[in-house]
């Protein structure tokens, strides 16, 4: 049984699901419309009231999660926490409230997870589909076929900003609505020609806002009763005629969600006009189901991150055999330095596989180029914090350690850095895995490295490399001794 928590710009939501064949059976759901985006001020800081609402909700969600025996829990945060300048200060309190780590995911990763959820619900391997998700702070557009994502983009336009900018006092006029639609269209126009040219069998709307719009149209007989352009314009006309969000009292939506629907409607009309979409099918699947599906895949040893690393290596022309050798050596050395922690072993292995991507830029300072690529590349399945941690390891693979001195204060990071440095050194010196048993290694308050004297003849550069290693650690205040016996 798995749990997914989505910290969105409009609402925080929770799903607990249990795999049931090809489906995911949802056994518990919770939602709290905390309107996080409304607490973001002009300086990009979340205010105290919004933070308090978030912490209260997360405390409640934590209590729900503790009621179940869960195999894995994943908490993901989207656009507002991507933007909030004080997110790093808030996260420790938020994680304590819910009792689990919180991952701030990129817009592209959000889009991929949304698509995974839709694909899981539809289970049609042949269908070519476009998925559009309109959130509080961003809109994700994803093209794919069956379970495979072909293209994903995140656009910085959402329900909150549209409502706040064009209907700030709740008043709805024809002029304001037209301006809002044009502003939304401007966000999508650069990508429009490409998306228009791609074949598709259907278009799906996966967000709660989409489902609310579809429900209002269907229950009130607007247009043809579906999310077609005539129906959306009919809904627009009703809103303009009423003139204020408070006057909207039709079946299909709660009053508190009307402002969100109005902003979402302007985005939906804008994206449909720009991308040449005639009709959108609302579907009750998206980010949370995608997170649950991803957790199930990881539990079954089908981790998307492995494929992301391989794709990145191939994009930058990395020698796969050398990368695999470095990863094998690094993981073997790391296992000798302390307890085996699965997530650290995996991060180290991925870092080793990617440690030479910087060679595609330049041999000079390749480790610095590699660290930048690892931190900033679009790697499906990885969170920002995971990529930052891997970039630290990659940056520390060679040369002085002053550049990561602060990070080395964490023992687990120091162990991983030492393992990767020694692995790359031994690989360059042509020491193979069979000889690794001859190397003695200990890392506590100080570091002890003992290599056989016979290596000097077999691998002439080893002694030089080990001397540099000793100097690098001593320079950052970590006593290191090296012996060849």
TrEMBL record:
Q: Which UniProt keywords apply?
A: Hydrolase
Q: Where is the Ppx/GppA phosphatase N-terminal domain?
A: 21-298
| Protein name according to UniProt | Ppx/GppA family phosphatase
Q: Which residues form the Ppx/GppA phosphatase C-terminal domain?
A: 305-469
PANTHER family (alphabetical): EXOPOLYPHOSPHATASE, RETROGRADE REGULATION PROTEIN 2
